[in-house]
Amino acid sequence: MPQQETLPLEAAPYLDISNPEYSIRSPEVRAARDSSWYARTPYGLAVLRHHEMGKLLIHKSLRQGSHAWPEHNGVNEGHFAKWWGETILVTEGADHRRLRQLVNPAFSPKTVKKLLPEFERITNDLIDDFIEKGECDFMKDFADPYAGRVLALLIGLPEELAGEILELSASMGLALGVTYKQSLPEIEAATEKMYALVDSVLEERIANPGDDMLSMLASASQGEDKLSREELRNMGVMLAFAGVDTTRNQLGLGMSMFLQNPVQWEILAENPKLDMAASAECMRMRPTITWVTREAIEDFEFQGLEIAKGTTLHLFSESAGTDPEAFPEAQFDITAKRDKNYGFGGGMHLCLGQIVAKNDMAVAYRILSQRLTAPKANGQATYLPDSGNTGPTYLPIAFAKR
Ligand code: HEM
Question: Please, what sign has the CA dihedral across residues 333, 335, 337, 340?
Fold first, then answer.
């Protein structure tokens, strides 16, 4: 049973999360969570339990911690670093509130509801391409093109550009890994190309707004206030960057949960209204973003622990999502009533695209379960390392047509 009290810093467990072999799901992390709500790491502190993660996500003494990443990697200039330094994710305070107020309406449930038939069309199209074979690589044949085509639809680019968006966002994503500096030429080229893609539609959307989110953002205003041209470009690139890799990885991780739990697949097929619950339950147990980063902007005390200004905190969403205190019936169960999970982060920086993502994944799981029998593993899957941003790279499955 987890202890409630706070251990002194020197007695807290130590997790070497800088080791590439380290797994966020390891028995070591589970044991650390049983003995303490936090652990020490080479980067700062790791927060392991659901209750504390919820409180710290909204704590006023913390800011989003990803702003210093390029600098930490010795990169102080270039297209990616400049773009990153001005994204909504690293903006704080009044500037961040202004941006969220302007862009939030474009991501409302009402806007997303209109997109559901399109998500269904894309799902069915992709299934049509592989269903007769009785097998596929779920990543290459479904998760990759689905995430790319949904994003193209959102920002109003032709769906044929889905492959390019996927490749560019993956190359830009190298900037968030440990090989940032070595991959700099690829990252810089991809950032420039992504800007060019966004620019290619922006002028047109400003002149003739359509139904897509970029058009909505271009005409978004609060009184006299509007997004500037530079803010629009930055946001367009951010949507493509933040929305594609996350969605493909999360879909793949969800499929890996169903592979281990075929009964749940059948439950979903028979109860399509459970699709949103299925989408949330996959993320609770297998979040693609396994931790979100925060940084202390002042010295403060939290549950008896003194946290110094500048301390980095990694809030472990996977560990919080499987915390027995919050989820006593821990097994994967799409019918269970669950407390919220933090796979989309929380507080001021809660994922802007979370309603889109929850819904597009729900549609995908629902239609897949209705058209395919419970999938079986069809070879050895491969995965990205288990920490940071994770997901399958190859996920061969076999099934029958219903
Ligand atoms: C399964 C898919 C997705 C996952 C797992 C995910 C996860 C996250 C996480 C963990 C954060 C950081 C939250 C924090 O620091 O507290 C975030 C932020 C963000 N996400 Fe997502 N995301 C997904 C899809 C999307 C999509 C589809 C879009 C847009 C089309 C999007 C746009 C953003 C933006 C703009 C932010 C920054 C918000 C801010 O700082 O105010 N995401 N996302």
Answer: positive
Q: How far is the CA of 90 from the centre of ligand 1 (A)?
A: 12
* Structure confidence by residue, pLDDT tens digits, 202-214: 888 888 888 889 8
- Amino acid identity of 12? A
d(CA 18, CA 258): 30
Task: Encode pLDDT of 274-315 as tens digits.
Answer: 999 999 999 999 999 999 999 999 999 999 999 999 999 999
Mean local confidence (pLDDT), 171-199: 90
Give the closest residue to 313 by CA, choosing from 38, 3, 80.
Answer: 38
Q: DSSP for 112-175?
A: HHHHHHHHHHHHHHHHHHHGGGTEEEIIIIIIHHHHHHHHHHHHT--GGGHHHHHHHHHHHHGG
Of 140-149, 252-261, 379-388, the one with minimum mean pLDDT is 379-388
Domains contained in the chain, CATH given = 9-398 (1.10.630.10)
List ligand 1's pocket residues with C-beta within 6 A: 64, 88-89, 100, 154, 238-239, 242-243, 246-247, 250, 288-289, 292, 343-347, 349-353, 356-357
Distance 57 CA to ligand 1 centre (A): 14
Total-model pTM: 0.96
Tokens of 52: 């504390």
CB atoms within 10 A of CB 352: 22
Distance, CA 59 to ligand 1 centroid (Å)? 19
Pocket test for ligand 1, best of 149, 238, 351, 359 (most atoms within 8 A of CB): 351
Distance CA 17, CA 20 (A): 7
Instruction: Name which of 279, 247, 256 is nearest 397 in CA terms.
Output: 256
